[in-house]
UniProtKB/TrEMBL annotation, chains A, B, C, D, E, F:
Protein name, entry field: 2-dehydro-3-deoxygluconokinase/2-dehydro-3-deoxygalactonokinase
EC number(s) reported in the record: 2.7.1.178
Family: Belongs to the carbohydrate kinase PfkB family.
Class of enzymatic activity (EC top level): transferase
Length: 311, 311, 311, 311, 311, 311
């Protein structure tokens, strides 16, 4: 059983119960979210282990995060409670103004999660992991959080990074500068990204060209293509797995589902192609519900999907 | 006005309000269901009569079943209350792990419905019917229920049977053996089945070949093809009616909607082809909602659908 | 900033929370609706002004209409309260018996809205408008309401009319006679219609032929084609803008969204073709929710849609 | 088993899901209601029979009424469908502006129910009843409905009448005149009323004095006192049964629950005092839910209540 | 018609749909709130005018606030949009850990509302008011907001102040110091407070003693006593009005309902005692629902309440 | 930190969203329940540890139970999955036919939970506990489960037992016989019971007399009195703590809340009287919501309650 450790901010998500501009939405549904927490649960669902290094506030939403993740099997022993700041939250506006897309409205500035710092990174704990993962979001939320990622990556034997650029958290310029800086410093085993992020980081939105440029920094590159599926680049090879047509409830977290599932199956010894085919299923199921973690499938569920959908 | 009598178990259905694995579903919606009850209501909606021979528990769910079906126009004079066992129930998990499919989780073992036995079959009552219908489910739930079907089929002038194999109730081997035994004993006027069931019973999933094999046992064979529509075989002829693309809420009961509507329109004197075209509409509307009976259309509603959808 | 004044009945809408025949719908969601109110809000959303001449009852639903529309920025100074009759209401049955269509069940006979009469039409107020708009519905609800439209159109410098034939309010013959009478009397700047209405009024459902016939009465003709989009005819030219494939919650009000948005962008100085492309977006977003006004987009929202959907 | 026949209007009720003025209520819950229908179901719940003479529209709400009441065991063979008018409906505003009270907003003017007329009263059918019941509401909704009551009362061997004055349907003067006229013409076996109605009809709100005055017209008088309970007057005697303190969801229909249960238990041979004690329980349970008929208890349920609440 | 101007922060409220600790609450209901906005709407409901000086973010929640308040009749001409910060929000936890009480969890630090500053206070606008009102909350949210209050109070002919101490926004010491400083500088026409706040400000929780001490600073003092009612002190006199026993949904905003209603009726020329009796009703209705403004009654509604509740 | 181990069946609860007979309840809310699981979470909330020995099915409801309890901090290492039977479930009917009471409808016969047997009881694990707890329910569900209790009690240094008689699971005679047998065999440190159970077991419903009789079997006796509070008997002393008047949503689980909280505070070193005062608060909060565990308070929450409610 492989072990993943992720670093990031866990957020409480308030998902609009009805579509359209939030001013006209009267009811919201609460979920636990945050990219690195999503990765963690997806990783666990394939039969591996995951722990998360993160901070939450000393409030109901913070305890909500801990209890939910512990319930999902996440090792929460390195989640800390910071009583000086509230747990970060966000709202999701769905299918408006763009059908099939969602928009996040954050209340996370100065949150407990952004107080994550190098002191929270326990060296022995990080060393115990087969893989250490973080994302562009963690780089963006605070300089101490960024430093925590640097410290963890320094210690880690294997590193995974999802570019996950959120332009509400930093500018395209900052994102480009900071991500390239990280990539230059640490060679990655896995880079998960998409064409929008590639355009920002490399000025290149063609998947093949972007992947070629990224290959200096990472061994395996997963290029997400939204509803169209994803491509994985490795050993000079390329494999494309297409997406499925399903009703879209909320696309938030679909990329994390794909990434976390792919990493976990890789460590389960799956062929890279098969791991991607399976990961696409996790991502597909994810967009059919509100909530980022509730529809993350087990390996067995993915196999049932594949058998019945006869892709 | 033709009269149908069905034998089977009426169940209370708890349908998941949200998609995904039931562990994460917090709210459930109650409906009255059960294949033979669904057939009955579909039959009535086309302007004919239907009575059901069934048992429910002496509990709120049992009275729920009686009141609802009486409200829908079903003759409930031969529904009995068995105070020794509870009314059977089931839960529906929707679109997970396979999009567009539903899964049933039964709490029906030892239920009042399974106590159905030959004593519950009133000879005079059965003789009053133009057609007597049951399904593989009734054969599977208990040996007394199976005997009740045998008794009713013995008396009936015309018989209809829906294979409806549920592998949570019996094994494929049992299903095959028992259904073939029934078919060998009683010639059917109508056999309603699908390619999955044909594969189990005959080892043949090609619709035409399966229908040919079934034609020894039944006069008219309706082969359901899921979202693709259905084929009817009769008099050495074959007619295919295709399905419609609509949003799928829950597919449970779609086959019963098709079967019950087809039988009823046949007795209304419709051409077989037209009866199937109409029955497909009933089945289409059925998958658009939770609940098996609420969207069963009248003949007039089907005609409005056909006129507006300009198939 | 251009000013539109509309005349019509504001209704309270009770939209079925679940699909299917209303007898089985247990919950209803309240919204403010009414074709001319919808036009008004769509007009405002593009940065122009709108006032409505209408009557509501001295009841909770009447005050609901006033408060909601005032909130949306509508000039409600010419809405009057008529304590002799209730505010009109209607129920919406969705996707049954025809998928992707909705049916309205009115409780508006003798409503306060139908008491609208020429005395409610303030000459100075009407003169202050760049455009005066009404619809076939207002002609149909009462003879005094019809006279109010005549009075307003007499005063107006520019007139807009949406044929909006509702066969639950009058017969096809009456609709034809009254609409042709109005068209013969007042030359319109804008006529908004569809092929069903054209068939009733002109006996012609071919869009081009119908538009040609209508061109005697109106300068610019918008021919709505439902999910397929719309065509605009002007200056002897024709421009077709196609629709988008999105999940349909309720189509009620889609035509008003298209019409109101088109008119407003025209007055904003948009090219007619661009105005129609944008109006199609308003109509598309409208069908994705229950409620007629909550998803009406601003110009900026439409542009985000167009950029992201890369039509 | 005694048989009751009632004459009146069946309404579809839209009950506010949240408290407060309806303009701010967004969701409504549908129920079948109408005083005489409520009486009927309460009567049946104690093990007797009831039929209703009424008209509904040829619409979803009309069929809703028929199916629901048939499900509840009501003899609906004398309910007629009138396709010239809609089924009457009403909305309920709860706990505002007066806590623990509800307000009804009717849309029933010209409804199918108000088309009830003497032709709908089948002489043989009425003769088959042990008791014929109607209310002030039926007198108020139309002159033909009033005449239907007269015709039925003429035929009936025993008559019951609930004064049920609704000042939204007629003035206090009309109510007084018409009710006194009816009372003068037909001697009643049962008169059900309350102190507000007594004040209007007799100018007397003291229960004892009012009952004394009413005793010229009726054998048994039930005087409802709201949450305080009720008094029954008969044979020169008087019995007071006090109410119970329970959470109030909606008081609509509480009086009907009391009346219908009392009548039925009287015919079951209960002592009048005991019948009233039991009827108070029915009324108590009724105010704990939205909906007028769903909480009507069986005799056995009442006994469980009495045993556990140890009044 | 008197005019009130209030200064404060408008918040979007997310009220827990179910009781208990928020970690276990899955659904939240959105409302517009904020003490000074509540005062404003309560003031308007009695037939006077109110405008609010406030800032909201350039986001859906900001527009929500503007549209809702405009709909309620508030003069929003001096509400400004600040695109540098989000609209403040808060969550409400109900009946836990203390039954009949609510707890607010704020996400308002650095909000647009806290950017309110003296530049936002238009001198001419403030002069047009008969009364200017603010609260301890506005003093607490930022120093610029506090300065805005000082500027407005400087200009105002008459001042009203609600102490409204929120210990999540400042310490008891700060609250005491800042409120006393304000009181020392500006003589108030109205001071609204309660015994908890009196304890903090004066070290005195006995209502009479506290009122005596406050009488140096204010002409009329309203001392709120929670469910027990309130006392008004003026001209050396004292009047106590008791509360009503009603089911408590959420007490948030009850004090604002009382204060705003009292002020408005004072300006309507009501005797002070009667104004308080009426204000208690507004406060009583307010606790029966979620949301701070939806149940604010008109004068007529209050009179219906008083007539029916026969206090 | 003390450690409790409980043995029992974990159930999935489907709580009626609306009051009244279940036949008319359309929506149900899912929770994790079961008396011993409730005890466990209540025990943990006061800062101690708890593990549960139990079996669930290999189904969504079984995983639901594990994930929820793990999230709540329960040691689930000795929960086993039994794939031969389903997880037990039950429905709750609220406030009908008796206001303020709830009724459970079980579907637990032959459930995975009832397969609990001595082999599931790990000797070392049980020895690690400071206290071992079970209830009459576990004795009733199966003979193997009863034997598991015997085995655990044999090993345990300290024993706690809640009589918890459910007459739907066994007869009064069986309950009496089996409970007395257990009491005769094992001396208890804690016996939690109520007057109804005392009546069945001892034929004595007077609390003092029953406690005296029970004192042969147990050191500390907690006698629950429903809404009136509870009495604790120990060392020949008696202490009564009264209940609080709060709105009752569902009383299910209130006794477990009281028992589990009391036991935990005892081990925290609280005086017995204070432990009971606190436990009453846990029980009070419990009845205010649906669900048995969501409102279980921490010690700190109880103290806030006591401070604010000034009992």
């Amino acid at each position: 059983m492989a072990k993943l450790i992720t670093l990031g901010e866990i957020l409480i998500e308030f998902n609009a119960l009805s579509l359209g501009p939030l001013r006209h939405v009267n009811y919201f549904e609460k979920h636990v979210a945050g990219s690195e927490a999503n990765y963690c649960v997806a990783f666990i669902k394939q039969g591996n282990e995951c722990g998360i290094i993160a901070k939450v506030g000393d409030d109901e939403f913070g305890y909500n995060a801990i209890e939910w993740l512990r319930g999902q099997g996440v090792d929460v022993s390195h989640m800390k409670i910071d009583s000086s700041a509230p747990t970060g939250i966000f709202f999701i506006q769905r299918h408006y103004p763009v059908p099939f897309k969602s928009e996040s409205i954050y209340y996370r500035k100065g949150s407990a999660g952004s107080k994550l710092s190098p002191e929270d990174v326990d060296e022995e704990y990080v060393k115990s992991a087969d893989l250490v993962h973080s994302s562009g979001i963690t780089l963006a939320i605070s300089s101490t959080a960024k430093e925590a990622v640097y410290k963890a990556f320094e210690i880690a034997s294997n590193r995974s990074f999802d570019t996950n650029i959120r332009l509400k958290l930093w500018s395209a310029e900052e994102a480009k500068r900071e991500i390239l800086k990280l990539l230059s410093k640490f060679h990655l085993k896995f880079l998960i990204t998409d064409t929008d992020d590639s355009k920002i980081i490399l000025g290149e939105s063609d998947p093949d060209k972007a992947a070629k440029a990224f290959s200096d920094y990472a061994e395996i590159i997963v290029m997400k293509l939204g509803p169209k599926g994803a491509i994985v680049y490795y050993d000079g090879k390329k494999y494309y797995s297409s997406g499925y047509q399903v009703p879209v409830e909320d696309v938030t977290g679909a990329g994390d589902a794909l990434g976390g599932t792919f990493l976990s199956l890789y460590y389960k010894g799956f062929e890279i192609e098969k791991a991607l085919d399976y990961a696409i299923v996790a991502s597909t199921l994810n967009v059919m519900i509100r909530g980022d973690q509730e529809n993350l499938p087990t390996t067995k569920d993915i196999e049932t999907f594949l058998r019945e959908m006869k892709k």
